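Let's practice the habit of predicting before peeking. Look at the sequence and jot down your guess about where helices and strands might fall. Then scroll down.
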Amino acid sequence: MNLLWLQSGGCGGCTLSWLGAEGGPLFVALADAGVELLWHPSLSEASAGEARALLAACADGRLPLDILCVEGAALRGPNGSGRFHLLSGSGAPMRDWIVSLAARARHVVALGSCAAYGGVTAAGVNPTDACGLQYDGGSPGGLLGADFRAGGGLPVVNVAGCPTHPDWVNETLIALARNALAREDLDDLCRPRFYADHLVHHGCPRNEFYEFKASADKPSDQGCLMEHLGCKGTQAHADCHMRLWNGSGSCVRGGYACIRCTDPGFEDPGHPFAETPKLAGIPLGLPADMPKAWFIALAALSKSATPARVRENAKADHILRAPTVKKAGR
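Done guessing? Here is the structure:
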């Protein structure tokens, strides 16, 4: 399958993440799955003229295009002209190239939350009128429209994340190459369910602190980051603690709260990322699927039962008290 990768309005961080994939040499892994990378603006050796000729051949159908990958938001401004971002040397807006190529592609993949929903590029007053390929924030629409379907019958596949995990990219591409990704394999926001059906909370190393509501007061503390430091891992759809980044890390493992970057609108939470908004002392962002009354009741019970070991360790940057060693059978 021929794959073409475009970079629109974004930082390039999803490409940088992708290069950290650990499943062997990246292009060998793709070739083994039958995926040929036609062109990538940062990784390919083709000259500017050769690249424009290749894109034109894909756009007019002379060269089959199986997978169109877009990284970064589509920039529609100023005034709907798209001329805030021109494809170098072509004189045409990148927005128009994306629309033309998407019409020819068998599959269209939005790589990262900017391409999926607008992301950081669309934050604030959004002067460039940035949007996702098939979403504008959390609303269907975007550049291609809510009714868009690629040649293979799927809507835009949103491999969301800021940046997206390299394994999410590769597993999506391999699934498409094997005709193993259907509409039912995507969630309500068109994210692949193999990672979006999980929560960041699953497998979090701070889960014991969460269970007892033993909270951190500052980023260097070992305790749960939800109550005071803005962590949204109980709401964020991703498997970041089940498949670690670079084999060893995640935001929370590094001491920083999960900001729910796989969801639309994460870039404008309405409060500082590292603070938890509360009402009457109760966090507003409760765990997914949990009624508020139950959370309040369980939190009060959990805090009253917190072991001294957990309470002390939560406010420290290292283990102060180890678990008690008990003899077998007791």
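How did you do? The domain at 2-196 is CATH 3.40.50.700 (Rossmann fold).
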